[in-house]
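Ticket closed. Logging final result for UvrABC system protein C.
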Amino acid sequence: MTEADNSSTFDSKAFLARLTTRPGVYQMFNNEGNILYVGKARNLKNRVSSYFRASGLTTKTMALVAKIARIEVTITNSETEALLLEQNLIKQQRPPYNILLRDDKSYPYILITDKDEYPAVRFQRGAKKGKGRYFGPFPSGSAVRESLHILQKVFLIRQCEDSFFRNRSRPCLQYQIKRCSGPCVGLITPEQYDSDLRHAIMFLEGRNQTIMEELGEQMDAASAALNFEKAAELRDQISRLRQVQEQQYVSGMQGDADVFGCAMQAGGTVVHGLFVRQGRVIGSKVYHPRVSIEESPADVLAAFVAQFYLAGVREIPDHLIVSYELEGREALEQALSEKRGRSVSIAHKVRGERAGWQRLAQTNAEQQLASHLASKQSIHGRYLALQDLLGLDSLPERLECFDISHSSGEATVASCVVFDRNGPLKSDYRTFNIEGITAGDDYAAMHQALTRRYTRLKKGEAKLPDLLVIDGGKGQVAQAMEVLDSLQITEVLVIGIAKGPTRKAGFEVLVSGDTGQEQVLQADSPALHLLQHIRDEAHRFAITGHRARRGKARKQSKLEGIPGIGPKRRRELLRHFGGIREIESASVEEIAKVSTISRALAEEIHAALHPEH
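Final structure:
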């Protein structure tokens, strides 16, 4: 190891004069001994000299050089060895001038249990404690949820917990909405279930065409045996699987690939990753790396790819496709291959479907950067703060918030507003007219709205959110947790935002759905501002819906909604009595005198107009 003199003014000429030309790693420190930057080089003398040239440096690089008080170098046997050491040092020290990624706490998998007669398929994050076969890791929780939804919809494989499964006496809601075959109560034999499970595993392995062929043969056999009901079931399953294939980009490429595009402008950098397994795009993810002295998208990608795979425990695929040629590509390929134990290729000049993936990743990176810059100081900063507050491994992509509005129990309406990373997603807003509850029972109203919303989401009508925000305290949050538990939705985080003792903005209390713990944030917290924004939007939308429903109800005739009373009979009643008050005052016998009204219908009209009797 070589070390520069520790002085207030760094003598670059003297240091460079005795610096080796061999490969290695250099570490730059300031006067206080704090690390500034870690880099690697094939030729240490040439690389370090580039920081001290007379011209051509960027503003950020000049700012770095001005702070250097000491440089330490470590000589290595090869550039590949230098690259591995560099990434270890970056991970350990997290220098402020290096490109830095947020640490992922854990990686999501799909687990298929193997200890049960009817195995389950589940979302699994973190340590592989469960016994069974794992698929993954997936790039994000949303990619896992999408695959689990397909397994439920196409193959009807159960996803419930074992305790829930073993204590059923009748099929649950999943069976009723055709997302499970009902093994808990013996509605499918173990042999039939094993066949469906085998097809689900084949789907996760990317063997879709083989599944289609097998199902087609089974359909033909059932039809030949005159078992037309079974043939129809298989036909529908083939149709659902074909729809999935049409929605997902599937290729004939062998092996796996990760595809990265990069967009860079003053004020922001975005890397967009597209993840392909067995020719199937299983997900994508946006990264906002902290960038300091990288001068181009190619520089960013080179640093990003090295840190993404070498400083973490991520799965390394057969192929990496990038949108720019990477400096030091050969060394990076060798380092990745050594870590993986198998050959890894990196390419930027690609054709055919690979070029399509490459364009898609780059286009997404450019669009994400445009959105990021447009709202960088407000929305993105608030999402980052919320991510830190909740300890999430990635930025939440979708938030939903519910609120209830009524006037003394009249015309109760629940609102659901949706935010994505760009803020309010108004096309996904929904309102729910609440019926059949005790007037003013907000808990029952919240329970009904959440049940209706998340039953639909389980059917695939929309994406599940990463975070469910409830406008209310522990009682309302408990309703949300009960609904999600009954629907076996475990991957949605729930928090409540309740007004504090003063009921003033800035003093709200956050309630955790998992633990019930309460937390008060600082009034200037960006995370609190985001939660206040979505809460206020839900409140506004609920009031708007309530007022519309109340206004409609007050304009509506009391005769509307009575079974058997259409426009013609309403006209006859009003013509006979002269007005609604006179009809309310009439007896059953008087109402029955109207030519189009029978005695039985008159009794129904009288009962509807006098519900208290």
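The mean pLDDT is 84. No further action required.
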